[in-house]
Amino acid sequence: MNHSHSTPPATNPVAGDPVTGRPAPRAGISARRVVLRGSVPIDGIDYVAAAAGDSPYAPGTVLTPGTLLAKPQPAWMFPPLSPEPDIPLNYTVIARHRRFMVVDKPHFLPTSSNGRLVRNTVQTRLRVAEDNPNIVPLHRLDRLTAGLVMCSTDPATRRDYHELFARRAVTKTYQARLVRPLPQLDTTFTELVLPMVKQPGSRQVTVQDTAQATLTTTRLRLISRDDPTLVEMQPVTGFTHQLRVVCHHLGAPIIGDDTYPIDKGLNLADFTHPLQLLAATMAFTDPLDGHKYCFATLQSLQSAAS
């Protein structure tokens, strides 16, 4: 069969966003945007035209395999999924609102796809369980960190809640269990400003006072003098591994940290040593109705004697 068409084939648009052409998620997994050149690949993958000002294809048009392309064509596709380790842990729903949800994420479950894990994420599992392909996490929470994650359920209001996080208008507190006490801490908050740099090709972030550094601000304190390795932290800024780097920099890494002080490598199938870091509370004023919300995790960290 000859698939070498040079004119747009008469195919029906697929269900999805009529403006961008992006198809609706399949099994909770979002389509990926690519740019096709030369011809539409004959590889068993469905390619759908993405919006482009000079494209001969309407957004959402299914592109016939082998079609010759006169110019680069943006497209959406669902790439084949690689095998993933099963993650025998799941989230708990804390709150359902008509515009958002708050869930309590376990250690080891990513918030959204990190490239290696696609099916086993909060986003994918929530979309399937709630039968809502529009669920999108509004902020990041590391795979190894447990605790609260807020997700948008309504595309029409998603930007309003995204901006809450962008403006740092959400107050988040974390708890961490450290490998040793920090004698410089008390039960009142101390504010620490550190310049951090993400090292290229490394999972580690370092504290370096260089032109490339980003200034980070963290507030931290002891929760109780009777438990000197349990600290509460409030990130004023948001930087990769910020809280983990702060604790390591002060001389007391978080228990279970596989990256600080030594990068032990990535093992997505190892669930034996959870990072003792917990997103414990989240508070904000709803940007649309002015209601004040405060949510708290149902989880707790291991005791000092564990």
From TrEMBL:
Keyword presence, Protein biosynthesis: no
GO biological process: enzyme-directed rRNA pseudouridine synthesis
Region of interest (Disordered), ranges: 1-26
Catalytic activity: a uridine in RNA = a pseudouridine in RNA
Domain called Pseudouridine synthase RsuA/RluA-like: residue spans: 100-249
Domain of life according to the entry: Bacteria
Record keyword Oxidoreductase present: no
Keywords tagged on the record: Isomerase
A Pfam family matched in the record: PseudoU_synth_2
PANTHER family: MITOCHONDRIAL RNA PSEUDOURIDINE SYNTHASE, PSEUDOURIDINE SYNTHASE RSUA_RLUA-LIKE DOMAIN-CONTAINING PROTEIN
Protein's name in the database: RNA pseudouridylate synthase
